[in-house]
């Protein structure tokens, strides 16, 4: 246990972490930390009320069920194969491969397909540079300033209201991306995560506002792009530095995926212990969440 500020302590203990962050925890999310992650409304990441969070989680979790993932795995395979083709072409042309941005583009296309039913086609862009990735960077980089100076967020909202665009507002840009995604989604008959979420809410006589859906979409875009891309690029980079392990992993994957055209159901990968170990180690060393997630001690202690 270490005191890191006059009113905050950091605890490095697995048992304590389960108590603090568990579903039945009495320690609420710290408002000063989570509020800057909100734009138009609260979302799954920022809900401080336990019941609201649970209600929202149930709606989203249904869309991410194993059945729904397997039903939409063709899209995931398509984006993965296209990424490999682009990497192979750059290698053939003796060009460097920006692993992180390449994976970010792949995951951006994947999550937009899953959430809205239409890919952003970021993988087709030159050098894997997307304005949406820039918006994600602007949003995440601004959070620490909003945490220390909350008034800046309100000033930025005020400037946006009066169309003063000289100050970059990543959250506003992502909100526009989400809004466009919903427009395209409602114009198609394709299954999407958010259609599933809306249908689940209607069955429970719940109404999801436009602002709430956009807030959830921003979380999906950021988490579905950056968190996964960081883990994948870090894992692959490490594996390439260990050719013996890399080839051993290839041999294991070939047992269920003998060719590039093979598309085994995702649950088949559960039978591959080395792949599972590599992915878990990749998550450990990449540490997708590199910041503390403070909770507040209740008045009774």
From TrEMBL:
GO terms for molecular function: heme binding; iron ion binding; monooxygenase activity; oxidoreductase activity, acting on paired donors, with incorporation or reduction of molecular oxygen. Transmembrane segments: none annotated. GO terms for biological process: mycotoxin biosynthetic process. Belongs to the cytochrome P450 family. This is Cytochrome P450.
């Amino acid at each position: 246990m270490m005191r890191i500020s006059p009113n905050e302590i950091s605890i490095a203990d697995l048992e304590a972490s389960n108590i603090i962050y568990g579903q039945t925890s009495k320690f609420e999310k710290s408002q000063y930390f989570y509020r800057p992650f909100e734009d138009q409304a609260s979302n799954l990441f920022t809900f401080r009320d336990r019941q609201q969070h649970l209600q929202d989680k149930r709606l989203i979790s249904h869309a991410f069920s194993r059945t729904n993932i397997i039903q939409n795995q063709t899209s995931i395979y398509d984006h993965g194969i296209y990424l490999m083709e682009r990497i192979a072409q750059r290698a053939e042309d003796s060009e460097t491969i920006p692993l992180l941005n390449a994976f970010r583009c792949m995951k951006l296309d994947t999550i937009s397909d899953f959430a809205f039913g239409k890919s952003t086609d970021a993988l087709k862009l030159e050098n894997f540079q997307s304005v949406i990735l820039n918006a994600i960077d602007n949003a995440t980089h601004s959070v620490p300033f909003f945490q220390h100076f909350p008034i800046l967020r309100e000033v930025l909202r005020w400037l946006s209201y009066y169309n003063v665009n000289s100050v970059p507002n990543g959250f506003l840009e992502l909100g526009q991306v989400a809004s466009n995604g919903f427009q395209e989604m409602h114009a198609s008959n394709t299954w999407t995560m958010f259609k599933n979420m809306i249908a689940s809410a209607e069955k429970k006589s719940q109404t999801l506002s436009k602002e709430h859906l956009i807030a959830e979409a921003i979380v999906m875009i950021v988490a579905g792009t950056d968190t996964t891309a960081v883990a994948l690029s870090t894992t692959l980079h490490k594996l390439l530095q260990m050719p013996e392990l890399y080839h051993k992993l290839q041999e294991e994957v070939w047992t269920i995926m003998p060719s590039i055209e093979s598309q085994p159901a995702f649950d088949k990968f559960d039978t591959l212990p080395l792949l599972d170990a590599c992915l878990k180690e990749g998550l450990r060393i990449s540490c997708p969440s590199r910041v503390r997630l403070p909770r507040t001690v209740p008045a009774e202690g």
